[in-house]
Amino acid sequence: MDAVRLEFHEMGLDDRLLKAVADLGWSHPTLIQEKAVPLALEGKDLLARARTGSGKTAAYAIPIIQRILASKQSVREQDVRALVLVPTKELGQQVQTMIRQLTAFCSRDVRVADVTGKADLSAQRSNLVLHSSLEMLVVDEADLLFSFGFEDDLKSLLCHLPKIYQSFLMSATLTEDVQALKELLLHNPVILKLQGSQLPDSSQLQQYSIKCGEEDKFLLVYTLLKLRLVQGKTLVFVGAVDRSYRLKLFLEQFGIPSCVLNSELPVQSRCHIITQFNQGFYDYIIATDEESLADPAAAPQAGKGKKKKKKKSTERGGGTTKDKEFGVSRGVDFQNVANVVNFDFPLTAESYIHRVGRTARADNPGTALSFIAHTELSLLEEVEEALTGDNTGTGLKPYEFKMEEIEGFRYRCRLLRHDKDLHPAVVKPHLRNVPEYLIPETLKGVVNPLSNRRRRKKLKTQPEGVVKSSFKKNIPGKNPLRSFKYSAARNPRGKAGPS
């Protein structure tokens, strides 16, 4: 018999907070919210492990807002009462947006500020007096905080905090770094391990792999997108910044629009791209997930070579620097993502979980498709072993796809050399269209290429006189040259007749 679920209105929350929750369309709390919110309201320290997309942000935001509203009844001073630490700037803006939505009806009593990506923090120290006022500390995506190099920063921050405060650690995985943070921050915590698996089961998340050569990756992504075999909002992950631009320019040649998201873009541009993607302005993002930025020890084979390459890239082009706080696969809430495509396979199982976790969030279905080159087979085995040991009940199934059926597209892809220098794409109009003879026999009647529909629409929208009438046969009475009559006998001499 199923246990009775605890609802939001049974948690003793403020009416203004309940109204904001209702406006967000949350009819029931998620499992992490149901378990964490009552414990947090009791003042207990929490270490919560729940898979990505399970609602961890609201699980700590709701009790923070509730406690501040309760304290405002007796204390009216404006002080910093809660501090949320996140590893990336994108996640910082996301948390700010969530708290603003939850405080929509009490914004005069509870205010939130995002200080990531702003001016030098030394200029803001006077505004962050925490020693006497702080009551709650949150570390979100705690498994990434040390791997992003913030260990010393965190230890120096602790010197400015009061002796007694409530702490929350939220993480998708329980790594050694999280255990170290637990010893550093928590006091007799309640540990919540709510999900046996770090990814949804196969009824919600479908995971596929395609073993292919390096050159075939470009052929595959073009075919899957152009023939609409991959439909809906899609994140395509690559392993390097220049590779993301190369793939974008490649897709542009075939009239497939996409957007690039990487560590070299300014933080405001990155946040704007994510916002527009969530609002449905475009369907494809090519995202760079650089392991060297997130976890320097993740790729020991590349070690020194990566450092030299990174230094060279910063010197070339007058100082294009990479933001170490960039983390597109970690914690960022891309909304309604239907597919994740690993164009370059991740270097660790943890990175795979974070990437694939961008889809199938909450109760929505999703698909993950990974291209596996011959040099990446060992990485695939590592991921499959991790998923099996995690008792997910799922694995990467082979994608039923016959490469010989798309051989007709190969010559188109070879026209675009992938080893040439990057330059603005010169779009050739004929490459936008997919001729009927190129569509595989198994897909004929099922696939209706978008380009053909566009061509028909163009013919309908253009003026008939331009598109059709110019090539019609002459019809008596309709020819404008025959509508004029000229009679020299009727015109007086010296006057011009009609022409």
From TrEMBL:
Keywords: ATP-binding, Helicase, Hydrolase, Nucleotide-binding, Nucleus, Ribosome biogenesis, RNA-binding, rRNA processing. A motif (Q motif) lies at residues 6-34. It comes from the Eukaryota. Its EC number is 3.6.4.13. It catalyses: ATP + H2O = ADP + phosphate + H(+). Belongs to the DEAD box helicase family. DDX56/DBP9 subfamily. This is RNA helicase. It comes from Liparis tanakae. The lineage of its organism: Eukaryota, Metazoa, Chordata, Craniata, Vertebrata. The gene is DDX56.
